[in-house]
Specification:
The chain is 45% helix and 25% strand. By secondary structure, it is α+β, with helices and mostly antiparallel strands.
Length: 191
């Protein structure tokens, strides 16, 4: 396995991996393929730190992070507002979740612990290669690049029902810094 910089040519493999790993727990997994590719192209353009784990010429994991990860997401959603609205109307579970997100933001203004700091927006490892250290290697590579850029801490958020990921972050020295109705935010200090 090697960890290397993500290239735009990796996006189609990353989109497929994203759909399989997050299978309907992330709203973006129900996007049609073309829309999901546009979404990942937007993320690719925004994020400074983006890496893939490759084994036998196959992407088996990825990590995307940078400052203010919500910026490209919000731009993407605004640019595809009506199409996204139609998708939400067909998927009531996500419609309810997005309404909850709206009210959570409305009542918790100013509490974004990820604003203006480096954050991991997405990290995923293929189901077939989980528990082999791929995620840990992606984190190590990411952290080395942060230290090279004099960044001494970073954050991430994980769904509160994803116990496997929570255990992974706790095992890798992350500290909880906040939570809302669906996510737990973590921070990691680097040496």
């Amino acid at each position: 396995m090697i960890i290397r910089a993500m290239e735009r040519d990796d996006i189609s493999e990353i989109a497929k991996l994203h759909k399989s790993v997050f299978s309907n727990t992330h709203f973006s997994t129900i996007f049609p393929s073309k829309l999901l590719l546009e979404y990942f192209n937007k993320l690719f353009s925004h994020h400074t730190f983006k890496f893939v784990a490759v084994e036998d010429s196959q992407v088996i994991g990825y990590l995307m992070g940078g400052v203010n990860p919500d910026v490209p997401v919000n731009q993407f959603l605004r640019g595809h507002f009506f199409y996204i609205a139609l998708i939400l109307l067909r998927n009531l579970r996500f419609l309810v979740e997005k309404i909850q997100d709206f009210f959570s933001l409305l009542f918790n203004k100013g509490l974004n612990v990820h604003a203006n700091t480096v954050s991991i927006y997405l990290i995923a490892v293929s189901i077939q290669t989980q528990n082999r250290g791929v995620g840990r290697e992606l984190l190590k590579h990411f952290e080395m690049r942060l230290l090279e850029n004099s960044v001494l801490s970073y954050t991430l958020a994980v769904r509160s029902d994803n116990q496997k990921a929570i255990d992974f972050y706790l095992k890798n020295n992350f500290v909880e810094i906040g939570r809302d109705y669906k996510t737990i935010s973590f921070k990691k200090l680097l040496k």
